[in-house]
Amino acid sequence: MKKEIIKELNTFLEGNFMAIRAYENFIQHIESDEIKHVLQIIQQNHKKHAMVIARRIQDLDGVPVKEIGMMAELANKVKGATKGDAAIVKDALAGEQRGIKTSKELLEGDLDEESLEMVNHILNADEKHIDLLTKFVN
Length: 138
Fold this sequence. Notes:
By secondary structure, this protein is an all-alpha fold. It has 5 helices and no strands. It starts with a helix and ends with a helix.
């Protein structure tokens, strides 16, 4: 059971690494200082979440992944950089929504109580990211 929990948490951790990398790209291409600031806040939240998840994996005697998988990396490169503030916000919003949905499906029923509480706390914070981004959608 412990191995399965570690595996699921590592997949969740990879998702946070994907978000961190995506926000790095968004921040580099955004024009609006106000939106850039919000994207930076969200990216910092994902970095904090990654640290919390990694710590939990270690507490379970597991080894946290250090980066996103090769397939995810390839998908990011193929997609390329999003251009224009409206498109960047739309992509960030879609990514947050997709990440929450995928994480909920992935982690359903496979976690111990402490890990589940941690994940739910993180997903609640991710829901707040959606609220922050939605105010910039026309």
